[in-house]
Amino acid sequence: MDAIDATNLSKSFGTVTAVDDVSITIPEGGIFGFLGPNGAGKTTTIRMLTGVLIPDAGSVRIFGTDVGKDPLAAKLKMGVIPENGTVYSDLTAEQNIILTAKFYGMDRTRREERAGEILARLGLTSRQNDVVRTFSKGMRQRISIACAIVHSPPLLILDEPTTGLDVYSRRLVIDTIRHMNREGSTVLLTTHNIEEANALCSMISVINNGKIVATASPEKLKKTFDTSRYVEISFDQPVGPALFSAPGITRAEPWGDKWRVYSDDPDLAVKYLASVAERDQLTIISIATSNPTLEEAFVKLTGGA
Amino acid sequence: MDWKIFTRSILVITEKNVRIYYFKGPVIIFGLLFPLIMFLTFFIGRSLDLVLFFPGFLGMMLFFTASSVGPLITPWEKREKTYERLLSLPVILESVIIGDLLGGALFGILITTIVFCICAWLLHLTVMNAGLLAFSFILGSIAFAALGTLLSSPSTENPSNIMMLSSLVRLPLIFVSGIFIPLGQLTGWIYILTSLSPLTYLVDLFHAALNGDAVYPPWVDVLVIVAVILIFVLCAKGIQKRNLVKGI
Ligand SMILES: Nc1ncnc2c1ncn2[C@@H]1O[C@H](COP(=O)(O)OP(=O)(O)OP(=O)(O)O)[C@@H](O)[C@H]1O
Ligand SMILES: [Mg+2]
């Protein structure tokens, strides 16, 4: 059964169409990434998936349960971190986790056991009895994730779980996401960190202007946009653009102390560059061919430069 | 709908409210101090007829206590960004509304009972119908906690806007509720205004329970208050649902 099955979701705010007829199917088991520029509609989509925003049109099923028709049962299957969402700052770390566990009907021993386990995993054991008001942003975010996973949800939905975190907190959060996934949770997350999405996600959907413009695995996405291959080369002396006008080279531009030479066939370009260096008695200081990056695919898809 | 999960969500939200918003030193102290000051200004140094005015005082006190904190909870949680997380837990709007209402009602019942006991002991009050009195405490607390929840519903991230709205609605009510002038002595348009205020019926119920000098039969008072509770809750639901559609 699919973890998420959303069909034809739409949402407008006044004249702004935030989400425009989006359908998403997320099979059970993977880590699914949602990428898109600011204002693309990621948060709006997630809010509709988690039942906190009523869609103008469309429906959402979480493991077969309709969020609009049976919100309580659907929400029981999810753990959610809303964008900028926080826990209660007047309660301690442990109280927050235990209160959340009560909503899911966990009994007392299970609640306490689980709270201890999660606090340790997220490196917060020494602060468990401090009120959250006194916590740093990273620690608060870790408590948010602690609350989201307390009931080992079959589905974890995280809107920018790592934004604004230092390396240490980020690693803890990412490790926790991986751990939960290994333990059987399907994960949907958004991030602006493309490297993170590349490293974490088994599938990625790119959303732009309220529409999904591509859905594929990170490697497939890179392959699809494998057009702007280039060679980066630097010589021991300055050279002009004229050097790079040759068949097969689409364009060349200065790039720091190097040149970026774009070509449909980088292997051929390397051979050509080696031969001109020999001809003009230039010494090649460095040369490297690019690998397609997810970032490029992203920029292409979302219409950036 | 699964009633077990629904009931649980209401109870946990009530617990959250009591712990975070009500069970606080300043809130409880102010909750007790306010009626005391009211009482002193009301009765001390004046030869007011206790029998005639005590029910009004009690009604006013319960009204203010039960509706004091409720209007602030949702705006506060929206500003603190805990509201959205709450909604993504296994709860529905009704759980939030009823949970907020119950927090206010418990607070109202607790404070009113304490203050009433102190007054009864100091003034050697007699109670005609203790059962009816206890029932009115509960019913009245629910009604005005429901008003508090309704006042918390308009979308704003600034709790002080709601403070203003709340004072604007609550203060005038005490002047048209048969507190300062007993209901039986009112005539004309004042009487009409007064019969539109839900607090009037609670005060009348207190008259029935304490002295037996009510204007309406108790069942009329109860019926009106129950209707008012339903109206408050349904309006709160309507407004909050609209916020959920507008995404605010
Ligand atoms: N409650 C709201 N009222 C009005 N407009 C809204 C509301 N929520 C979102 N929008 C608009 O909808 C569009 C999509 O916003 P959304 O928050 O979904 O983007 P996002 O992809 O999450 O962006 P970001 O990466 O910046 O978080 C934006 O144009 C935004 O201004
Ligand atoms: Mg967002």
Describe this structure in words.
The complex is a heterodimer of chains A (305) and B (248). With 305 residues, chain A is α/β, with parallel strands linked by helices. Chain A contains ten helices and 14 strands. Chain A has helices spanning 42-49, 71-76, 93-103, 108-121, 137-149, 167-182, 194-200, 218-224, 266-280, 294-301; strands spanning 2-13, 16-27, 31-35, 57-62, 65-66, 78-81, 155-159, 186-190, 203-208, 211-216, 230-235, 249-255, 258-263, 284-289. Chain A has a six-stranded mixed beta sheet with strand order 6-7-8-3-9-10, with helices on both faces. In chain A, α6 links the parallel β7 and β8. In chain A, α3 (93-103) runs parallel beside α5, α5 runs parallel beside α6 (167-182) and α8 (218-224) crosses α10. Chain A is elongated, with a radius of gyration of 24 Å. Chain A starts with a strand and ends with a helix. With 248 residues, chain B is mainly alpha-helical. Chain B is globular and about 55 Å long. In chain B, 46% of the residues are buried. Chain B contains eleven helices and no strands. The interface between A and B is medium-sized, with 35 and 27 residues. Residues 42-43, 83, 159 of chain A line the site of magnesium ion.
